[in-house]
Amino acid sequence: MKYDFDEIVNRENTACVKYDLRKELFGKPDVIPAWVADMDFKTPDFIINALKKRLEHEILAYSIRPDGFYDSVIKWIKDSHGLTIEKDWIVFTPGIVPALNFAVLSLTSPGDKIIVQPPVYFPFFNAITDHGRIKVDNPLKIIDNRHEIDFGNLCGLIDEKVKMIMLCSPHNPGGRVWSLNELRQIGELCVRNKIILLSDEIHSDLILFGNKHIPSMSISDELAELTVACFAPSKTFNLAGLSTSVAVIKNEELRNRFKKTVESLHVGSGNIFGTVALQAAYENGRDWLNQLLEYIEGNIRYVDQFCKEKLPAVKVMIPEATYMVWLDFRETGMNSKRQKEFLIDECGVGLNDGRVFGIGGEGFQRMNLACPRSTLVAIMENIYEKMRLFI
């Protein structure tokens, strides 16, 4: 089946964060939103049909996750990434951000240090500081217009108080797919110092341009025993509103501690529709995903070529994964505050201010490309028309 990613879907007045909070977030109700990481494409038909079928049984009472839920997770991860996991390793979580917090609460103690590598997905920060842990930054370097890990600095940060490294793999916002060598170096640090690796792999299905995601748990048996890996269908299939994800934890002691936290907070039940949607996505989603990735690659090429031809002061960091691009506005001469004002007030475009991603975000903007090409054209033309008057 051929899917139509050019279709415009009106999302206004659907209690939609991306569109219905524009006035509150940007001060204007009519900006073109290209910020939060969800898609303007319809959730795939095979998921919608599965939800409709479940609704035909008109009782929505307490439910369990059937074997098919776990089987679909196991098969999807094996087929996609070559990683073999077991049912017992899988723990339901109501979203990746809750999972990050559960891991911090259950596997570290107040006063412990946790390393992050900014610019990075900003909920990492609160998951650390909200619970009395100490955030330690290992800023990424930009080399040849891509993010690289500063291993020299990272090694120097390790001491007896460091109990966890948070890894965004693939990386958000820069779109890096970490190499085997990079992951091995992180793994060796963790194993040598008995540091837990909390690996957010929510973007692992959104791999672009022939790159390959390597699961953190696959690096070595020793690292697998120290890893909490988080997966979800939400970014891949536009299911964020169903708050359904899993943590994969091989080590029984770590898993039991993690599960105890989930159970103590009484958030492990989930919901019927999240269960149905995950299973439908992982059992039927391969062809749709392949078509999606091809479309996203086309959007990336469009933005890159547009900037080279019309906006040479804006540099595009080509992502190896995700449907976000990291845009370098530093050569425009505008600081981040002025960039934000310019994009919202003059261009009518709502992006993510790079500063929210921490150190290394100043002067950058994150843009969501998971939208019809016509929306993207409107965004880029708006920026171009105003930028040529500015520069």
Would you write up a description of this structure?
The chain has 391 residues and is α/β, with parallel strands linked by helices. It folds into two domains: 17-42 and 286-390, Aspartate Aminotransferase, domain 1; 48-284, Aspartate Aminotransferase, domain 2, CATH 3.40.640. The protein has helices spanning 17-20, 22-26, 45-55, 67-81, 96-107, 123-129, 151-157, 180-193, 221-224, 234-237, 252-264, 272-284, 286-310, 336-346, 373-390; strands at residues 32-33, 90-93, 113-116, 134-137, 141-143, 146-148, 162-168, 196-200, 227-231, 245-249, 315-317, 324-328, 349-350, 352-353, 364-368. The strands form four sheets. A seven-stranded mixed β-sheet has the order 2-10-9-8-7-3-4, sandwiched between helices. The relative contact order is 0.17.
